[in-house]
Amino acid sequence: MLTEKEMEILNLLIREAPNYTTYPAEVEKRTFRQISRAGARLACERLAKVGILRSTNKRSQTWAKPTPHYQLPEDKDTFVKIVREYFNTLASSNHISWQSSAMFFMGSPYARRHITANLVRDVLSSRKVEVRMVAKMEKSQGADSDQKFNNILISFPVMPAGGTAEDMKSKVDILNNITTEEEKAFVEEVIRDHYSNKEMSIIVMPILLLLEISPTSLEFFLGDWAPYENGLVHVFNNKDLFGKIAVSGELYGFEMIEHLLFRLIWGAVSDLSLTRRVPENEHVLDAYVSGGRFYSGKQPLLRLSCRGHYSIEYEAGFDTEELLYGGEDDGAPEVVERNPENCTVRMTVTQTGSVG
Predict the structure, then answer these.
(1) DSSP string, 122-170
(2) How far apart are CA 121 and CA 130, in angstroms?
(3) CA–CA separation, 211 vs 115, rounded Å?
(4) What are the b/e assignments for 285-295, b being 16+ CB within 10 Å?
(5) Mean of the pLDDT values across residues 17-34?
(6) In terms of CB atoms within 10 Å, which of 80, 87, 211, 319 comes out highest?
(7) Beta partners for residue 242, in sequence order
């Protein structure tokens, strides 16, 4: 947990540009002597010792000799550490509504530099998340089989930040025997299209938007969750997420993280119920919970209106009924688990003529 002085110093730094450095005399001046030079030095030294600040010796305006200057590192590991320490400190003083105090951090230039698609990609990739689908290849006319399609089972690992479709080609797992040139060409096109278009809209952006607006969701996403392994593969749809297409784990192959999405969605809803506002961010303009403005027709749990004239609707549900398998002659029935939350998630993204 951070001290009051350490929090104040972090609040000074997170609003600055990348690589901004400060030193104890400047901290004293900027805090109007609420933090003395000696107090600032001790606080900065401790933050540097635990890996939150980086210390370098530089000359300042007040000293001829080089003295320690401090800055926020811009790497992902430090960002994760700061999120945990910062949010834990806020929660220790107000565990009921700490999210309201976290809005300052969420809207800061530092947070906005790090809550990006690259962060989402790196976390999902490091947890070995895969999107598993069945690509349906239309058979050529005159094929012997009565079936119109070849079902090709494909497992797509999430592409890390900086990766390319070409990089990922060798990492994709094809669960069928691909023999003909036509099949090979089809699979290459599916892989290229998935990493060039679909992965961003199916998984990355829906998660990123929730992280941008919700400290609870951000903290959970950076925490110790694990993907769910159930071995299922579902039908691949050649359309992307845009254009009034409903998406669920069953249809779009994100069963491994459906339980994660469930927690992120409900985390965002909980935070919005407390803060009633969206922090400054790169994409989300407004949020509506259960329709917000009671439009006619069925309302989603959460709708986010975004820059670029599109909105995304989230539905996340569960029930208390247990699905049982077996019993009687087979012995005691077993509980069938859809995922760790026994939940279902669906998302719909629509292009709009106007936002709001």
Answers:
(1) HHHHHTT-EEEEEEEEEPPTT-SSS-SEEEEEEEEEPPPTT--HHHHTT
(2) 11
(3) 7
(4) eebbbebeeee
(5) 95
(6) 211
(7) 349
